[in-house]
Amino acid sequence: MTTYKEIRGTNIEAVASDPSNPVNGQVWYNTTTNVVKGNISYGSGVWATSTSINTQGNGMGGAGTQKDAIIFGGNRSPGNNFTEKFNGTNWTELNNLNLGRNQLGGAGTSTAALGFGGYQSPPGAAANNETELWNGTNWTEVNNLNTARFAMAAAGTSTAALSSGGKAAPAAVADTETWNGTNWTEVNNLNTARFQLGGFGTNTAALAFGAFGGPPNYVLTELWNGTNWTEVNDLNVGRWGSGAAGVTTAGIAFGGNATPQNPSTSNLTESWNGTNWTAVGTLNTGRNGMGQAGTSTAALAAGGELDGGPPYILTEEWNAGNLPVTFDVS
């Protein structure tokens, strides 16, 4: 059997922390976590057009995987309480939210999801703290967020979710709350208050990035360790209202509203490898406010809008093969 040293010309290196820029195929032993890790990278990924949603919209919540997802709420006509499910081929309309709202957070799976916050029509209406639980068939009202807001970063599952940032009239907030399946609890805030930010991960390990509100908010990235937020490496290109999928060691940010500093950001995709953001394959149609689901290697982007234009029905699927990812090989 061929050994690692015969392939790479060196033994597996023992290090106290993960390398900041590992090369493709590199393997190391982290003496702090006592875990063997490696890095692999194949290509830049491709977005492919898929089946359109039934009702055009933007500002929707989303949950699930690329081939088994739901989107709900959003700016949709004639109402903003729609729920649709994707089975990998088609979108099917399901039972509506009890309270229709736009720019709400979403977490979980297609059969066990959480929808929280948002605002009701018309645009500019007061933020909402409503939380609803999806069981695969119906939405049920459960305990509310402590701070009503919309356009927050969302992460986690239907029993362990995270809501961070957002807008609570009249301004952006830094508030972070965790959901334990029954109640929301206020925990330590983001370092910088902002809204229209993207997020992915779990309620104990999450990433929040980008935002509306001008430099430096457009590019800011913060990492949540279950207790505190820490500023880490910025997005390469600032944007707000982007889609997001993944975990804190392997995620993607896609689309987002163009900023004055970067007028062509709306179709860009960047991958996160746990340390840095890297530009990868672009969306076929640039937009923001999409319903989203999936992982860093297989994500879904549904609906959205472009710079205040009418909502789309477009759906695109992201297939990366493998982006730069640091993984546990022990």
Detailed description of the structure:
The chain has 330 residues and is mostly beta strands. The protein folds into 2 domains: 4-40, no CATH class; 45-320, Kelch-type beta propeller (Neuraminidase, 6 Propeller), CATH 2.120.10. Helices cover 2% and strands 40% of the residues. The chain has one helix at residues 4-8; strands at residues 13-15, 27-30, 35-42, 46-49, 57-58, 61-65, 68-72, 75-76, 83-86, 91-94, 105-108, 113-116, 131-134, 139-142, 153-156, 161-164, 167-168, 171-172, 176-179, 184-187, 198-201, 206-209, 221-224, 229-232, 243-247, 250-254, 269-272, 277-280, 291-294, 298-302, 315-319, 322-328. The strands form 9 sheets. The chain has a 4-stranded mixed sheet with strand order 1-2-3-32, with no helix packed on it. The radius of gyration is 19 Å and the shape is globular. The two termini are 18 Å apart. The mean pLDDT is 89.
Compile the SSE list and pairings.
Layout (H helix, E strand, L loop, with lengths): L3 H5 L4 E3 L11 E4 L4 E8 L3 E4 L7 E2 L2 E5 L2 E5 L2 E2 L6 E4 L4 E4 L10 E4 L4 E4 L14 E4 L4 E4 L10 E4 L4 E4 L2 E2 L2 E2 L3 E4 L4 E4 L10 E4 L4 E4 L11 E4 L4 E4 L10 E5 L2 E5 L14 E4 L4 E4 L10 E4 L3 E5 L12 E5 L2 E7 L2
Parallel strand pairs: 1-2
Antiparallel strand pairs: 2-3, 3-32, 4-31, 5-8, 6-7, 7-9, 9-10, 11-12, 12-13, 13-14, 15-16, 16-19, 17-18, 19-20, 21-22, 22-23, 23-24, 25-26, 26-27, 27-28, 29-30, 30-31
Could you list some keywords that capture this structure?
330 residues; mainly beta; Neuraminidase; four-stranded mixed beta sheet; four-stranded antiparallel beta sheet; 40% strand
